[in-house]
Design goal:
The structure is a single chain. This protein has about 280 residues and is of the alpha+beta class. The chain is about 45% helix and about 15% strand. It has 9 helices and 7 strands, in the order E-E-E-H-E-E-H-H-H-H-H-H-E-E-H-H. The strands form 2 sheets. Strands 2-3-5-4 form a 4-stranded antiparallel sheet, with helices on one face. Helix 2 packs across helix 3 (about 115-125), helix 3 runs antiparallel to helix 4 and helix 6 (about 185-205) runs antiparallel to helix 8 (about 240-265). The longest helix is centred in the C-terminal third of the chain and has 23 residues, at about 240-265. The protein starts with a strand and ends with a helix. InterPro entries: DUF8172. It holds the Pfam family DUF8172.
Length: about 280
Protein backbone atom coordinates (compact mmCIF):
# COMPACT_ATOMS: atom_id res chain seq x y z
CA UNK A 1 0.00 0.00 0.00
CA UNK A 2 1.28 3.46 -0.89
CA UNK A 3 2.35 5.64 2.01
CA UNK A 4 3.47 9.15 2.87
CA UNK A 5 7.14 10.09 2.99
CA UNK A 6 8.08 12.69 5.61
CA UNK A 7 10.40 15.39 4.31
CA UNK A 8 11.65 16.36 7.77
CA UNK A 9 12.69 14.60 10.94
CA UNK A 10 14.12 15.98 14.18
CA UNK A 11 17.48 15.07 15.67
CA UNK A 12 18.49 16.68 18.96
CA UNK A 13 17.75 20.38 18.34
CA UNK A 14 18.03 20.24 14.54
CA UNK A 15 15.42 19.71 11.83
CA UNK A 16 16.86 17.31 9.24
CA UNK A 17 15.71 17.39 5.62
CA UNK A 18 15.34 14.51 3.18
CA UNK A 19 18.45 14.33 0.98
CA UNK A 20 18.50 10.92 -0.71
CA UNK A 21 16.46 7.77 -1.34
CA UNK A 22 17.88 4.39 -2.26
CA UNK A 23 17.19 0.68 -1.82
CA UNK A 24 20.85 -0.01 -1.03
CA UNK A 25 21.82 0.92 2.52
CA UNK A 26 25.51 0.98 1.56
CA UNK A 27 24.73 3.61 -1.07
CA UNK A 28 22.98 5.65 1.61
CA UNK A 29 26.06 5.36 3.82
CA UNK A 30 28.28 6.56 0.99
CA UNK A 31 26.14 9.62 0.30
CA UNK A 32 26.05 10.39 4.01
CA UNK A 33 29.86 10.34 4.06
CA UNK A 34 29.92 12.73 1.11
CA UNK A 35 27.67 15.18 2.98
CA UNK A 36 29.78 14.90 6.12
CA UNK A 37 32.99 15.49 4.15
CA UNK A 38 31.58 18.82 2.94
CA UNK A 39 31.32 20.06 6.51
CA UNK A 40 33.82 22.78 7.31
CA UNK A 41 35.70 22.77 10.59
CA UNK A 42 33.22 25.02 12.40
CA UNK A 43 29.87 23.55 11.35
CA UNK A 44 28.05 20.69 13.01
CA UNK A 45 26.66 17.89 10.84
CA UNK A 46 23.79 15.62 11.81
CA UNK A 47 22.10 12.82 9.89
CA UNK A 48 19.67 9.97 10.30
CA UNK A 49 18.69 7.04 8.09
CA UNK A 50 15.11 5.79 8.11
CA UNK A 51 13.61 2.70 6.53
CA UNK A 52 10.28 2.71 4.69
CA UNK A 53 8.26 0.13 2.79
CA UNK A 54 6.06 1.71 0.08
CA UNK A 55 5.80 -1.72 -1.55
CA UNK A 56 9.50 -2.49 -1.36
CA UNK A 57 12.04 -1.64 1.32
CA UNK A 58 13.82 1.66 0.76
CA UNK A 59 16.09 3.84 2.86
CA UNK A 60 15.90 7.60 3.28
CA UNK A 61 18.80 9.80 4.31
CA UNK A 62 18.02 12.92 6.34
CA UNK A 63 20.72 15.48 7.09
CA UNK A 64 21.36 19.06 8.22
CA UNK A 65 24.21 21.41 9.04
CA UNK A 66 24.40 23.83 11.95
CA UNK A 67 26.72 26.76 11.17
CA UNK A 68 28.23 29.35 13.51
CA UNK A 69 26.10 32.47 13.86
CA UNK A 70 28.46 34.80 12.08
CA UNK A 71 28.03 37.05 9.05
CA UNK A 72 31.05 36.70 6.73
CA UNK A 73 33.48 39.60 6.71
CA UNK A 74 34.01 41.57 3.54
CA UNK A 75 30.67 40.71 1.94
CA UNK A 76 30.27 44.41 1.06
CA UNK A 77 33.01 44.01 -1.53
CA UNK A 78 31.11 41.25 -3.35
CA UNK A 79 27.96 43.21 -4.19
CA UNK A 80 27.17 46.33 -6.24
CA UNK A 81 27.66 49.45 -4.11
CA UNK A 82 24.17 50.72 -4.92
CA UNK A 83 22.65 47.55 -3.36
CA UNK A 84 24.35 48.00 0.02
CA UNK A 85 21.44 49.87 1.71
CA UNK A 86 18.95 47.24 0.57
CA UNK A 87 21.09 44.29 1.64
CA UNK A 88 21.85 45.93 4.97
CA UNK A 89 18.11 46.47 5.51
CA UNK A 90 17.36 42.79 4.81
CA UNK A 91 20.15 41.68 7.16
CA UNK A 92 18.87 44.03 9.87
CA UNK A 93 15.39 42.57 9.42
CA UNK A 94 16.75 39.04 9.78
CA UNK A 95 18.67 39.96 12.93
CA UNK A 96 15.51 41.54 14.35
CA UNK A 97 13.54 38.37 13.65
CA UNK A 98 16.32 36.34 15.27
CA UNK A 99 16.25 38.49 18.41
CA UNK A 100 12.49 38.07 18.66
CA UNK A 101 12.84 34.29 18.59
CA UNK A 102 15.68 34.37 21.12
CA UNK A 103 13.40 36.37 23.41
CA UNK A 104 10.85 33.57 23.05
CA UNK A 105 13.63 31.14 24.09
CA UNK A 106 13.47 29.52 20.66
CA UNK A 107 16.77 30.61 19.05
CA UNK A 108 17.11 29.98 15.33
CA UNK A 109 19.62 27.41 14.08
CA UNK A 110 21.76 28.48 11.13
CA UNK A 111 21.26 25.64 8.64
CA UNK A 112 23.48 27.22 6.00
CA UNK A 113 26.11 29.92 5.74
CA UNK A 114 24.99 33.52 5.49
CA UNK A 115 25.18 34.58 1.82
CA UNK A 116 24.62 38.37 1.42
CA UNK A 117 25.47 38.39 -2.32
CA UNK A 118 22.41 36.20 -2.90
CA UNK A 119 20.28 38.99 -1.44
CA UNK A 120 21.63 41.22 -4.19
CA UNK A 121 20.89 38.49 -6.75
CA UNK A 122 17.31 38.26 -5.49
CA UNK A 123 16.71 42.00 -5.72
CA UNK A 124 18.27 42.15 -9.20
CA UNK A 125 15.51 39.83 -10.42
CA UNK A 126 12.79 42.26 -9.36
CA UNK A 127 11.17 44.33 -12.10
CA UNK A 128 10.61 47.74 -10.51
CA UNK A 129 8.15 50.50 -11.49
CA UNK A 130 5.18 48.16 -11.68
CA UNK A 131 2.14 48.21 -9.39
CA UNK A 132 3.22 48.22 -5.73
CA UNK A 133 1.81 44.74 -4.95
CA UNK A 134 3.58 43.27 -7.99
CA UNK A 135 6.95 44.79 -7.06
CA UNK A 136 6.70 43.86 -3.39
CA UNK A 137 5.33 40.41 -4.27
CA UNK A 138 8.40 39.87 -6.43
CA UNK A 139 10.69 41.12 -3.64
CA UNK A 140 9.18 38.70 -1.12
CA UNK A 141 9.12 35.82 -3.60
CA UNK A 142 12.72 36.35 -4.73
CA UNK A 143 14.10 36.74 -1.20
CA UNK A 144 12.43 33.48 -0.21
CA UNK A 145 13.39 31.66 -3.41
CA UNK A 146 17.06 32.64 -3.27
CA UNK A 147 17.27 31.31 0.29
CA UNK A 148 20.21 33.58 1.11
CA UNK A 149 19.67 33.50 4.88
CA UNK A 150 20.66 30.67 7.24
CA UNK A 151 17.08 30.38 8.53
CA UNK A 152 13.81 32.33 8.68
CA UNK A 153 13.78 33.24 4.98
CA UNK A 154 9.98 33.42 4.94
CA UNK A 155 9.78 35.32 8.21
CA UNK A 156 12.41 37.83 7.12
CA UNK A 157 10.92 38.41 3.67
CA UNK A 158 7.47 38.98 5.15
CA UNK A 159 8.85 41.32 7.82
CA UNK A 160 10.81 43.20 5.13
CA UNK A 161 7.47 43.88 3.45
CA UNK A 162 6.85 46.45 6.18
CA UNK A 163 10.08 48.29 5.30
CA UNK A 164 9.12 48.56 1.64
CA UNK A 165 5.51 49.58 2.23
CA UNK A 166 6.51 52.17 4.82
CA UNK A 167 8.77 53.72 2.18
CA UNK A 168 5.85 53.85 -0.26
CA UNK A 169 3.40 55.26 2.28
CA UNK A 170 5.52 58.25 3.25
CA UNK A 171 3.71 60.88 5.26
CA UNK A 172 1.17 58.42 6.66
CA UNK A 173 1.26 55.90 9.46
CA UNK A 174 0.13 52.57 7.96
CA UNK A 175 -1.05 49.84 10.27
CA UNK A 176 1.19 47.14 8.83
CA UNK A 177 1.90 43.82 10.56
CA UNK A 178 5.51 43.25 11.62
CA UNK A 179 4.94 39.53 11.00
CA UNK A 180 8.42 38.37 11.89
CA UNK A 181 7.46 36.11 14.78
CA UNK A 182 4.44 34.45 13.14
CA UNK A 183 2.16 35.51 15.97
CA UNK A 184 -1.07 37.42 16.39
CA UNK A 185 -4.29 37.83 14.47
CA UNK A 186 -2.53 38.38 11.18
CA UNK A 187 -1.20 34.82 11.14
CA UNK A 188 -4.65 33.27 11.17
CA UNK A 189 -4.97 34.35 7.53
CA UNK A 190 -1.31 34.64 6.49
CA UNK A 191 -0.49 31.07 7.48
CA UNK A 192 -2.06 29.65 4.34
CA UNK A 193 0.27 31.76 2.18
CA UNK A 194 3.35 30.57 4.06
CA UNK A 195 2.32 26.93 3.82
CA UNK A 196 1.49 27.16 0.12
CA UNK A 197 4.79 28.94 -0.49
CA UNK A 198 6.73 26.12 1.16
CA UNK A 199 4.78 23.52 -0.83
CA UNK A 200 5.57 25.30 -4.11
CA UNK A 201 9.24 25.72 -3.22
CA UNK A 202 9.57 22.02 -2.51
CA UNK A 203 8.04 21.27 -5.91
CA UNK A 204 10.47 23.67 -7.55
CA UNK A 205 13.67 22.68 -5.78
CA UNK A 206 13.22 18.95 -5.35
CA UNK A 207 11.47 17.88 -8.53
CA UNK A 208 13.86 14.97 -9.13
CA UNK A 209 13.63 13.70 -5.56
CA UNK A 210 9.83 13.92 -5.59
CA UNK A 211 9.66 12.10 -8.94
CA UNK A 212 11.85 9.33 -7.52
CA UNK A 213 9.69 9.08 -4.40
CA UNK A 214 6.64 8.65 -6.60
CA UNK A 215 8.40 6.05 -8.77
CA UNK A 216 9.28 3.85 -5.79
CA UNK A 217 5.72 3.86 -4.47
CA UNK A 218 5.14 6.84 -2.17
CA UNK A 219 1.82 8.60 -2.60
CA UNK A 220 2.71 11.90 -0.96
CA UNK A 221 5.47 13.84 0.73
CA UNK A 222 4.72 15.67 3.96
CA UNK A 223 6.55 18.71 5.36
CA UNK A 224 6.35 20.23 8.82
CA UNK A 225 3.10 21.97 9.80
CA UNK A 226 1.02 19.46 7.88
CA UNK A 227 2.08 20.65 4.42
CA UNK A 228 1.45 17.87 1.92
CA UNK A 229 2.36 17.24 -1.71
CA UNK A 230 0.17 14.73 -3.53
CA UNK A 231 2.70 13.06 -5.81
CA UNK A 232 0.00 11.61 -8.05
CA UNK A 233 -1.25 15.14 -8.79
CA UNK A 234 1.95 15.85 -10.75
CA UNK A 235 3.30 14.27 -13.93
CA UNK A 236 6.99 14.76 -13.22
CA UNK A 237 8.04 13.02 -16.42
CA UNK A 238 5.85 15.18 -18.68
CA UNK A 239 5.09 18.62 -17.31
CA UNK A 240 7.52 21.38 -16.35
CA UNK A 241 6.64 21.13 -12.67
CA UNK A 242 9.51 23.27 -11.39
CA UNK A 243 8.94 26.31 -13.61
CA UNK A 244 5.20 26.15 -13.03
CA UNK A 245 5.74 26.15 -9.28
CA UNK A 246 8.06 29.17 -9.59
CA UNK A 247 5.43 31.18 -11.48
CA UNK A 248 2.76 30.22 -8.96
CA UNK A 249 5.06 31.22 -6.11
CA UNK A 250 5.44 34.77 -7.42
CA UNK A 251 1.72 35.14 -8.05
CA UNK A 252 1.01 33.86 -4.53
CA UNK A 253 3.04 36.64 -2.92
CA UNK A 254 1.51 39.34 -5.11
CA UNK A 255 -1.88 38.20 -3.79
CA UNK A 256 -0.49 38.26 -0.26
CA UNK A 257 0.65 41.90 -0.57
CA UNK A 258 -2.73 42.91 -1.95
CA UNK A 259 -4.43 41.30 1.05
CA UNK A 260 -2.01 42.98 3.47
CA UNK A 261 -2.83 46.37 1.94
CA UNK A 262 -6.54 45.70 2.05
CA UNK A 263 -6.43 44.56 5.69
CA UNK A 264 -4.21 47.54 6.59
CA UNK A 265 -6.87 49.86 5.16
CA UNK A 266 -4.54 51.07 2.43
CA UNK A 267 -6.23 49.68 -0.71
CA UNK A 268 -5.21 52.80 -2.64
CA UNK A 269 -1.64 51.44 -2.75
CA UNK A 270 -2.83 48.40 -4.70
CA UNK A 271 -3.06 50.53 -7.85
CA UNK A 272 -0.11 52.82 -7.09
CA UNK A 273 3.03 52.49 -9.21
CA UNK A 274 6.32 51.76 -7.51
CA UNK A 275 8.71 54.75 -7.91
CA UNK A 276 11.73 52.55 -8.62
CA UNK A 277 14.63 50.87 -6.91
CA UNK A 278 16.64 54.09 -6.64
CA UNK A 279 13.84 55.82 -4.74
CA UNK A 280 13.55 52.89 -2.32
CA UNK A 281 17.31 53.03 -1.68
CA UNK A 282 17.18 56.78 -1.18
CA UNK A 283 14.37 56.49 1.36
CA UNK A 284 16.31 53.83 3.28
CA UNK A 285 19.35 56.10 3.58
Amino acid sequence: MAEALPYHTEHDDLVLSLRFLNRNRRRIAGVRTDFEDRTDGEARFASETKQFDPGNRIYALYAAYDHPKRIPEGWENEVPKEDLPLIDAVISTFLGVSRDWEAKEEPLNWYKKFDPPKISDALSNVEWRQRVPVVEGEIVSELIRKHSLPNANHRTAIAFLRTYLNSIAQGSDPDLPAAGTYEGEWYTWAERYVHESKRLLLLRRKTGLLAHAKAVGFSEVTRKSGIRIDLYAHEFDKGDVGNGAERDHQELWVQFVEEVLDRSEMPELIKETDPGKGTFVQRLS
